[in-house]
Amino acid sequence: MNIKNDLKIARKKAASGERLTKEDALALYEDNDLLSLAHWARMVKKRKSGNKIFYIINRHINLTNICSSNCPLCAFQCKSDDNRGYTLEIEDIEKMIDEIKKDKTVSEIHIVSALHPTKPFEYYVEVIKVIKKALFDIEIRAFTPVEIVNFSKHSSKSISEILEILTKAGINSLLGGGAEIFSERVRKIICPNKATAEEWLYVMKTAHQLGLKSNASIMYGHIETIEERIEHLLKLRDLQDETGGFQAFLMFPFHPNNTELGKKYNLKRVGAWEDLKMIALSRLILDNFDHIKAFWVMLTLPIAQLAMAFGADDLDGTIGEEKIIHAAGSKEFSGITRNSLKKIIKETGYEPVECDSFYNQIR
Fold first, then answer.
1. Among 32, 165, 193, 217, which residue's beta carbon has the most beta carbons within 10 A?
2. What does the radius of gyration of the chain's CA atoms come to, in whole angstroms?
3. What value does the mean pLDDT take over residues 132-160?
4. For residues 79 and 87, what is the distance between their CA atoms, to the nearest angstrom?
5. What does the pLDDT read at residue 323?
6. Are 128 and 169 a contacting pair, CB within 8 Å?
7. Burial grade of 95 (CB within 10 A; 0-12, 13-18, 19 or more)
8. What's the rounded Cα separation, in Å, for the pair 200 and 146?
9. Which long-range contacts (CB under 8 A, 24 or more apart) does 332-336 make?
10. Secondary structure of the chain in the HEC alphabet?
11. What is the separation of C-alpha 13 from the centre of its chain, rounded to a whole number of angstroms?
């Protein structure tokens, strides 16, 4: 094995936009040439979306934090007898809707929750119906594959049936969370009681076949290896080759505070260098994804702004109240204004573009 020659080949392929292999990606990661990665990733971004950086006016709704999976990686979840637990009922949702209606600019409702042990699937269907009826012109991006698998197991309905019912109720696309790392070695430690990698990928494949678009994600910076990170990205790329249903890719650096996993392994949040390297490398590996999100709540606003120079073309949105990441120690505020997002983008020399869930330009 000629390491220097392998790196030379990998750098040449990255510079010319050729598809990278696992070996190429590992060589580029180990080379640690951050500025070259940024340059090559920017070239991909320019081919995909020119000088545009997208953002959306959206609102997050976390229906419950009561969860049956008890994942060591999560600080948001709690058991049903915990006094921190909550579950939004339909009346609570209706109050939220009244508040959202006051803001005529909202384009998307984003719904993700824990795996409640007793709430029936019908509850989630009713939530979607109530939101869609009141906010009929707003798109609903709801539920991760992990939640879809949970709905299927609790209702004895197939994945396809669950997705068809939710689509009829009013969801427009699926969330990309819950993927974590596809390595079963790692999943047995960080999330042993929720959907497997195969189940996550199967839900996405089925959704895409039914015409539902989705995002995809990775959670890095805990106990996974670099090779496992890259294998995760390649599995996403393979599925995208098959279905074409992924719209955007998000990176979630692990926030260890208040988590069992963080305490057990004495984990620290990875640094900005690692975040930016992962963004650039992901942009190069995922050549069949149109968009890379810099999810500012996870990354922090300064890193998200820098990410635009490392291949990202989407800052996600205004968000409103977010609870899951903040439970794990995120210090970023929950919401941001449209004008603040535009200012952050303009400072980089890019063009801010307000869009809907499907990247159709609004302003």
1. 217
2. 20
3. 97
4. 12
5. 43
6. yes
7. exposed
8. 6
9. 332/296, 332/297, 332/300, 332/301, 334/297, 336/296, 336/301
10. CCHHHHHHHHHHHHHHCCCCCHHHHHHHHHHCCHHHHHHHHHHHHHHHHCCEEEEECEEEECCECECCCCCCCCCCCECCCCCCCCECCHHHHHHHHHHHHCCCCCCEEEECCCCCCCCCHHHHHHHHHHHHHHCCCCEEEECCHHHHHHHHHHHCCCHHHHHHHHHHHCCCEECCCCCCCCCHHHHHHHCCCCCCHHHHHHHHHHHHHCCCEEEEEEEECCCCCHHHHHHHHHHHHHHHHHHCCEEEEEEEECCCCCCHHHHHHCCCCCCHHHHHHHHHHHHHHCCCCCEEECCHHHHCHHHHHHHHHHCCCEEEECCCCCCHHHHCCCCCCCCCCHHHHHHHHHHCCCEEEEECCCCCECC
11. 27
CA distances from 118 to 5, 64, 88, 128, 129 (A): 57, 12, 14, 18, 20
Q: Is the pLDDT of residue 264 over 80?
A: yes
Q: What tokens were used for 22?
A: 């696992």
Structure tokens at 220: 């890095």
Instruction: Tell whether the model's pLDDT for residue 275 goes beyond 60.
Output: yes
What is the Cα–Cα distance from 69 to 114, expressed in whole angstroms?
A: 8
**pLDDT tens digits, 306-339:** 999 999 999 999 987 534 444 444 444 457 989 9
Nearest to 53 by CA among 237, 280, 317: 317
* Structure tokens, 180: 């974590």
Query: Rounded to whole angstroms, how far apart are CA atoms 314 and 7?
Result: 30
**Measuring CA to CA, which residue among 53, 77, 54, 55 is closest to residue 66?**
77
d(CA 269, CA 332): 14
At position 202, the amino acid (one-letter code) is Y
Q: Find the range with the poorest average confidence among 137-146, 281-290, 319-328.
A: 319-328
- For residue range 30-59, list pLDDT tens digits in order: 999 999 999 999 999 999 999 999 999 999
Q: Tell me whether residue 349 is exposed, middle or buried, using C-beta atoms within 10 angstroms of its C-beta: 0 to 12, 13 to 18, 19 or more.
A: exposed
